[in-house]
Amino acid sequence: MSIEQFRVDGKVALVTGAASGIGQASAIALSDAGARLVLVDRDEENLEKTLKMVAEAIIVPADVSKQADVAAAVDQAVSHYGRLDVMANVAGIMGAGGPITSIEEAALDRVLAVNLKGVFFGVQAALRVMGEQGSGSIINMASAAIDAAPAGLVAYSMAKAGVAILTRAAAQEGGSVGVRVNCVAPGFVVTPMTQRGTPERMAEVEAAMRRRSVLGLVGEPEDIANAVLYLASDASRFMTGQTLRPNGGTAMPA
Fold first, then answer.
1. Is 143 a catalytic residue?
2. pLDDT class of 1 with cuts at 50, 70, 90
3. Beta bridge pairs of residue 16
4. What pLDDT, on the 0 to 100 scale, is given for residue 196?
5. I need a labelling partner for 13 at 20 to 30 A (CA). Which of 32, 104, 124, 161 fits?
6. pLDDT of the residue at 131
7. Which residue segments constitute the domains of the chain, with CATH numbers given?
8. What is the structure's pLDDT at 202?
9. How far, in Å, CA of 186 to CA of 244, rounded?
């Protein structure tokens, strides 16, 4: 085993949700390991900030809930770099919180559109390109919610559970054409998406999350980016259809 197997020199990686949080950290980790990047997000201002944090990249403003936007982003990756080696479907939102009986259809639709359909569109577009070139790694972002099913987050949990099943189905289809498909299911991570409410309220939430972790920790975006980098690299060449769970021990499914 060589440490070089964890590098991704020259690989072309498209990262959705690259404007902040786990997506931004994943883009930086991939860049530091040698990847050329396609940075995708609907937040153009913060996408420009990520661009300044990486070595070689182009930015593609896009809404992952729109199939045409995702397909166009993949097309731009191929037209600019000539190939696509890594597809990291990180973009996600919370939203539609509260009891099941209180959730409005529009809020449910938005969560499913970004968190599930957006990942599906990314897998779909990447598989087409990677299947033709005979290689590639697709990395989807699920959540520890797929194991814990927390009350008040049913729409989010449903979408992320769908991502885990999509990952396994896509791995079945991708294997014969040299494409690996895996997902990452993070525990609580301090990101702009999870920082809601007053600072005092967030301190209470983070303290509660630390108590749930057997390590007494909450995650940082870099903790999840390391898992993304592993799955993007040749170090994970024998892994497909799997879910990595960097969650501090908050969930330990058999």
1. yes
2. low
3. 40
4. 67
5. 161
6. 98
7. 3-238 (3.40.50.720)
8. 77
9. 8
Q: Report CA-CA distances (Å) from 17 to 54, 188, 205, 213.
A: 15, 17, 24, 26
95-132 residues labelled b (16+ CB within 10 A) or e (exposed) = bbeeeeeebeeeebebbbbbbbbbbbbbbebbbebbbe
> CB neighbours (10 Å) of residue 17?
29
**Per the residue annotation, which of 143, 157, 233, 236 is the catalytic one?**
143
Sign of the alpha-carbon dihedral angle for 180, 181, 185, 186: positive
Mean of per-residue pLDDT scores for the chain: 94
Q: Look at the chain and count its residues.
A: 254
pLDDT grade, residue 240 (50/70/90)? very high
Other C-beta atoms lying within 10 Å of the C-beta of residue 38? 27
**117 is annotated as an active-site residue:** no
List 31, 156, 233, 236, catalytic entry: 156
- Decide if 230 is catalytic: no
The proportion of the chain whose per-residue pLDDT surpasses 70, expressed as a percent, equals 98
CB 247, CB 144: distance < 8 Å: yes
Straight-line distance from the first to the last Cα atom of the chain, in angstroms, rounded to the nearest whole number? 28
Structure tokens at 94: 């919370």
pTM for the complete prediction? 0.95
Q: Which of 157, 160, 230, 233 is labelled catalytic?
A: 160
